[in-house]
Amino acid sequence: MRTAPLVLLLACCLAISACVYFNTFYNAKKSFREAEKERRKHEETYADWALDRAGPELQRQRSPQADQLYDKAVRKASKVLDEYKESDLVDDAMFLIGQAYYWRG
Asked: From residue 57, how far is each of 20, 30, 68 by CA, in Å?
C-alpha cells in the first residue's frame, strides 16, 4: 500500500529526466532549422547580386543571424553531449554539430 506512491514518484522522476534531455535536443534542432531557414533566405536574396560581381569574397557572404542560430544549435547540442552521455540522442547531437559547423564555415 505504501509502495504505490513511491513507485509513482519514481516513474514521474524517470519521465521528467527523459523529457529534459529530449527537450534540450529538440531546442538544438529547432535552432538549427531556424538557421537553415535564415541561410536559405539570405542566399536567395543575394544570389543574383553575388553572381554579378567577380570576386569570390562577395560570393561567400553569410547571414550573421544564421551564424548566431548555428552557434546556438551547437551550444544546445553540446549540452546533450556533456550532460546526457548515455542517451540515444548523442549521435544525432554530434551530427547536428557537424552540420552547423559546416554551414557556419
From this structure: 42, 30, 20
Q: Domain residue spans in the chain?
A: 20-104
Q: Are 70 and 103 in contact (CB under 8 A)?
A: yes
Q: Which residues 6+ apart lie within 8 Å of 65 measured at CB? A: 38, 42
How far, in Å, CA of 9 to CA of 5, rounded?
A: 6
pTM of the full predicted structure?
Answer: 0.72
CB-CB contact of 93 with 73 (8 Å): no
Q: Which residue has the cell 539570405?
A: 42
The number of CA neighbours under 13 Å toward the Cβ of 18 is: 7
Q: What is the pLDDT of residues 38-75, one digit of tens each?
A: 999 988 877 766 555 555 555 556 788 999 999 999 99
